Amino acid sequence: MPGLVQRCALPLAALCLAGLLAGCAGGAGNGSGTAELLTSSDMTAGQKRAEIRRELAIGYYQQGQLEVALDEIKKALQADPDSAESYGVRALIYSDMNQLPLAQDNYQRALKLAPNNADLNNNYGAFLCHHGREKEALPYFDLALKNPATDASKGNVLNNAGSCRVNLKDYAGAEPYLLQALQLTPDLLETNFNLARVYYGRGDYQRAGSFMTRLSKIAKMESLTADVLWLGIKVQHKLGDTGAEAGLATQLRRRHAGSAEYAAYQRGAFDE
Questions:
Q1: Cα dist. 27→1, 54, 119, 220, 239 in Å?
Q2: Is residue 239 part of a domain?
Q3: Is position 106 within any domain?
Q4: Residue 192 falls inside a structural domain
Q5: Domain residues for 106?
Q6: From CA 53, how far away is CA 190, in angstroms rounded?
Q7: CA 155 – CA 133 distance, rounded (Å)
């Protein structure tokens, strides 16, 4: 789904991992702010083994070695069957393996154990939004934003909440989330892209164009996905800049000739 950020601090990644990695050391954002912070000395031997396995699983997951990551997180859950963080990591892995019912089951298990966990709520919201369940997703982003543990990744969560609303064409609802995200993470490609989507959807093509220009300064042309290039083409088409439109169309053809976006360009489907 365009514009979702799913792995903290990594561009176009797969969900916030910081709290899942260090969950045993501080409750991963579960508490109300009055609970005593947990340290290594509070952990059982099983929890310590699980943390090591979870760290390994996350490392393999980030490298795209999903089967190895799955094996490690299974071992983590064997060592500590009540770890919400480990269920959350297993949900990520299953999602990337396109095992969607298993991913959902693991998210729900994780949230049953830690219903206020900021990263889990953001990640499950992103999962739902990515799979066309935007209205179900929105409350999870709001829960994540209420948790002080979200502060380190607040820009990403705000972007996700805004992006999900853009998918619903709720441009007025999306804008405040995305403008807050822009203040916190001005160089996040996804936030600039989502704001361009908002203003294009509203018919404010000049402002959409300004965010596409910002985006082009943040990211290299060869890294832009087909949906980003196609939006840029549509914006320039509306602005009547045929030179810029043709340049972006050339990039779309060269890099994403088999994409649905290039097929739409060939049809002249600028208003679909």
A1: 30, 15, 11, 38, 50
A2: no
A3: yes
A4: no
A5: 1-133
A6: 31
A7: 22
Count of helices and strands (H, E) across the chain: 15, 0
State how far the Cα of 120 lies from the Cα of 176, in Å rounded to an integer.
23
Residue 3's pLDDT is 62
Question: Which two three-digit tokens encode residue 214?
Answer: 């910002």
Question: In which region does residue 48 sit, left (phi positive, over 0), alpha (psi from -120 to 50) or beta (all else)?
Answer: alpha
Long-range contacts of 248-257 (CB under 8 A, 24+ apart): 251/221, 251/224, 252/226, 255/222, 255/224, 255/226, 255/229, 256/225, 256/226, 256/229
What would the pLDDT profile of 162-187 be if each residue is shown by its tens digit? 999 999 999 999 999 999 999 999 99
What DSSP line would sit under 161-228, residue for residue? HHHHHHHTT-HHHHHHHHHHHHHH-TT-HHHHHHHHHHHHHHT-HHHHHHHHHHHHHHS-GGG--HHH
The token pair that represents 28 in the structure block: 């991963």
pLDDT digits (tens, 9 = 90+) for 67-86: 999 999 999 999 999 999 99
Tokens of 87: 């269920």
Structural domains in the chain (count): 1
| Residue 97 tokens, joined | 């393996």
CATH number of the domain bearing residue 129: 1.25.40.10
62 in a structural domain = yes
